[in-house]
Amino acid sequence: MKHLPVALSGLLSAAALLASSFAGAPVLAAVVCLMCLVVSLGWPQLMGVAARRSLAAVILGAGVVAALGAAVVSAVESLFFWSSVALAFGVMAIFVIQVVRGTGRPHRIESTIGASSGVVVTTTAAGWVAGLRYPAELVGVGGDRTGLVLIRSPLPYEDWGVLGVTGASGELTVVGLAALALCVAVLLACLPLRDLLAVPLIILGTPAAALGVGLAWGELTTLFSVVLGLAAGLLVSAMRRLLLHRGAPAGRMAALAVGTAPVAVMGALVFFAERLLLV
């Protein structure tokens, strides 16, 4: 029960991303901003740092700028530009806050490192928005499929040309597949099993589930299905192991932030997987 807030926040975040991936980039960006809010409220509490309000504002502001930037840019090369800018200025703002606090303040190093890691989490969450817009809006149709093993579903689907990963007409997107894989991974992580059984189950079960979804729904590929499923499984299994060894976070908001953070970070993996694998 003590890990229930962590599991619920992770599951709800992934489910919200899955649902919003069908509604388009604006709705998905709003969900990402809400995730950044949860992380920003709980991260300073989790790290036990001072100046929590100012640092939380920086963590939230960096994430919102990155998400909105990914939602409005018109060039593929600029999709992660605002994430880089927000990360740089966010870390700079954290150092400025520490300087303003004055000398002799306790836990300045821990506060700086902890808040900077929070900025990394929220700015990488923009990868969910960038990942949705990359194939759906900015690449166009008729993409080259060289080197990708295409799975054509036995069920009816819309053929949109670029691996069918656009969500405009009910298609399961790469973003939706990754969010669904995270949901499966979190559910597997909640099983009351020892690490010896739970970790292999999560790492192997999540790619298997993602591959099964790719076979049954949409024009997805074995490559995307396995890569995203494996990434989700590794991420969640590592977080599960850490929580069991370190114990549940102290504080409700800290627990919610811990559950949301891996889901947010997965956004960067989704986007860069598309850039590397979608040719």
Q: What does this protein structure show overall?
A:
- The chain crosses the membrane at residues 26-43, 55-73, 79-100, 112-131, 172-191, 198-217, 223-243, 255-273.
- Keywords: Membrane, Signal, Transmembrane, Transmembrane helix.
- Residues 1-25 form the signal peptide.
- This protein is mainly α and 279 residues long.
- It has one domain.
- Helix content is 72%, strand content 0%.
- The protein is built from ten helices and no strands.
- The chain has helices at residues 4-20, 25-47, 52-72, 81-101, 108-124, 127-139, 174-189, 195-216, 222-246, 252-277.
- The radius of gyration is 19 Å and the shape is globular.
Poorly predicted ranges: 140-170
Helix content: over 70%
Tally of helical runs: 10
Radius of gyration: 19 Å
- The gross shape turns out to be globular
Number of domains: 1
Question: Would you spell out the secondary-structure blueprint of this structure?
Answer:
Layout: H1 4-20, H2 25-47, H3 52-72, H4 81-101, H5 108-124, H6 127-139, H7 174-189, H8 195-216, H9 222-246, H10 252-277
